[in-house]
Write a structure and sequence with these properties.
This protein has 18 helices and no strands. With 403 residues, the chain is an all-alpha fold.
């Protein structure tokens, strides 16, 4: 808990820095923020000049680069309202099928923020699916290059986000002009890109959070296992917390206390997601989700986890070691969520639905504790059995404003 509190001042400065171009068109000086975390150096090294979204005379005005994007393959032109409705429906459906808990939380968002929220969530699903859909790699292959297709898909999304905020396209050499033109055309025909573009305009989303999301997902392509628990914590903040920062902006909330609570909810839920994916990643991707330092600390062998908890006569001893390793990560997640609970009373009412992802994370930690931190417990591997209970907990938190 002391370590968590020590990083709060730096994190607040970084959030202010990310949003600084919103109120002033100037750049950002790295001397304004003390560098006390490794990921802070990466963030501060980026150029913040020109990250403000180009201004349009109205939130609903279509940028020049997107005019005529409603034309379907048959050549007929859809009305703007119909196109936006279909794009939103596809975003919602993607989140419903790939991120059901995020879908339930989205249904409880304020009506004016719901469309932007699902656009952000669908983007997060798309980025996460890039690694999930790649071919299996051997454990310990952190140095292996991810597939070219995965890198190209990340670059595709990076260019798409860049196009949402740039006034005009960057002039490139003729040799690559054709390729970039093809990328631009494919982006224009993507309903998710169009939805995110509208969200950046209507909610004035901070570009830095979108960039951090892509950066973190791309860096993760090269990782089959995190090295340290601290590295896993930073990754959770760069992904899950960034999504929550954007969700708050979708609701029109830009508040320091809300950002602090979102930071802790994001880190806590990100660590929980790692625990929940432990068995799946071992079975389907031959990856170890728990960090190396935690595995070595308790003497857990990678092969024990990859074999589904059944290897040899030492399985009982290995099972106890794995449970201890899981317990350490779970306790850190619980500490962050407990800190978020302390801060939730300071969060503006309009921003509290954005923190509802804390509810399923807390539920899983309770179930994990009941299972003696055994990630192979059948109850933990069938989350659909607890959906009704989850819905009840979410509804109660939405009505009371307390999770």
């Amino acid at each position: 808990c002391e370590h968590i509190d020590e990083t709060m001042a730096t994190r607040r400065c970084l959030l202010v820095a990310a949003r600084k171009p919103r109120s002033s068109g100037g750049g950002f000086s790295t001397s304004d923020v003390p560098l006390r975390r490794n990921y802070a150096t990466l963030i501060m090294s980026r150029n913040f000049v020109g990250q403000r979204r180009p201004s349009f005379s109205g939130c609903n005005r279509t940028p020049t680069s997107t005019i005529g994007l409603g034309r379907n393959l048959s050549g007929s032109t859809k009305s703007k309202t119909q196109q936006e409705k279909e794009d939103h429906q596809q975003s919602v459906e993607l989140v419903r099928t790939r991120d059901f808990e995020g879908y339930l939380c989205g249904l409880l968002m304020p009506s004016h923020a719901r469309e932007s929220y699902f656009a952000v969530r669908s983007l997060n699903v798309e980025l996460a699916s890039i690694k999930d859909g790649r071919r299996k790699r051997n454990v310990g292959g952190a140095g292996d290059d991810p597939s070219l297709a995965s890198r190209l898909r990340m670059q595709w999304w990076r260019e798409a986000i860049n196009g949402m905020y740039e006034d005009s396209p960057v002039v490139e050499e003729p040799s690559v002009a054709g390729f970039l033109s093809h990328m631009s055309t494919s982006q224009q025909h993507s309903p998710i890109v169009r939805s995110v573009r509208r969200a950046t305009q209507s909610a004035d989303l901070t570009r830095r959070f979108l960039d951090r999301l892509v950066d973190a997902r791309e860096a993760d392509l090269e990782q089959s296992q995190m090295t340290t628990l601290q590295q896993l914590t930073e990754y959770s903040e760069e992904t899950s917390s960034s999504v929550l920062y954007l969700s708050l902006e979708c609701a029109g909330v830009r508040d320091e206390d809300a950002d602090s609570a979102a930071y802790h909810v994001g880190v806590g839920s990100g660590l929980v997601s790692t625990l929940r994916s432990t068995v799946y990643r071992a079975e389907h991707h031959e990856e170890v989700a728990l960090p190396v330092d935690v595995m070595e600390k308790y003497g857990v062998e990678d092969q024990f986890l990859l074999s589904g908890g059944q290897t040899n006569d030492d399985s009982k001893q290995q099972q106890e070691a794995l449970q201890n390793a899981v317990r350490e990560v779970a306790h850190l997640a619980a500490a962050h969520l407990a800190r978020a609970r302390q801060l939730q009373s300071r969060v503006p009412k309009a921003g509290r639905p954005s923190l509802l992802p804390a509810v399923p994370a807390l539920m899983y930690l309770q179930q994990l504790q009941s299972a003696q931190y055994n990630v192979f417990d059948p109850v933990l591997l069938q989350p659909e059995l607890n959906r009704f209970r989850l819905l009840l907990h979410l509804s109660r938190s939405w009505l009371t404003g307390v999770f």
